[in-house]
């Protein structure tokens, strides 16, 4: 057989192998991508419901235009229900056609609303510049949350503060105003909760978002749980009113007979 001299030039494969052996190690930055200096909010913890629900609790808000604006923002930011305390009907001026897309649930007193939240595992968050309040951008949320605002002039009453589990506030960056409008403050906080809960963004078309419209007939024939509960409540109110009217008519008839 033919002998190969040790002085013969190495083959192409041998040269590549030797180059790899003597090449300097790649810098650590090239081996793994550096960690990002900023990260998204933590969001719901593992094992929690994937998208915790938010609720808007309306009590002690005075100006009717704020109700309508809050309802519009509640729909935009995925609020599941609107809790209305101490009113039989909600003024909806300025809602821009969003009434019915965040179902409303009515309570006679704040104590009853609080008890309902406790039974359903919903924490109440006060939107107020309170000593214990945390900046809203810290997202101090832990699950289903009902957001309550104070009055436009005097803020939250002691009764409202006592009903809250925790508070958030919106940092301001000038001394031009002492506080934000109630509807604006509520809108900002509801948006932050939607980001924390990782609610999916609605589909866009052109310069607007695609609307999910359910007409009155569909809501009547195929109501969701909250809509059905509200329909049952209104039926019970109408039945009670008719019964009272019948009693009044019977009393008048008896008085006529006595006369």
Polypeptide structure, described:
The protein has 259 residues and is α/β, with parallel strands linked by helices. It has 8 helices and 9 strands. Strand 1 (54-58), helix 3 and strand 2 form a beta-alpha-beta unit.
Descriptors for this entry?
alpha/beta, globular, 38% helix, 259 residues, 7-stranded parallel β-sheet, two-stranded antiparallel sheet
Write the topology of this structure.
Elements: H1 12-22, H2 28-31, E1 54-58, H3 64-76, E2 81-85, E3 104-107, H4 110-119, E4 123-127, E5 134-135, E6 145-149, H5 158-163, E7 166-169, H6 182-196, E8 204-205, E9 208-209, H7 216-221, H8 225-258
Parallel strand pairs: 1-2, 1-6, 2-3, 4-6, 4-7, 5-7
Antiparallel strand pairs: 8-9
Helix pairs in contact: 3-6
Summarize the structure.
This protein is an alpha/beta fold. The protein contains eight helices and nine strands.
Low-confidence stretches: 1-8, 16-41, 93-99
Reported for the largest beta sheet, the result is:
7 strands, parallel
Strand content bin: 5-15%
SS-based class: alpha/beta
- Helical percent range? 25-40%
Structure summary, number of beta strands: 9
Main-sheet strand order equals 3-2-1-6-4-7-5
Q: Kindly report the average pLDDT value.
A: 78
Succession of helices and strands: HHEHEEHEEEHEHEEHH
C-alpha end-to-end distance:
142 Å
Radius of gyration using CA atoms only: 31 Å
Categorize the overall geometry. globular
Number of helices: 8
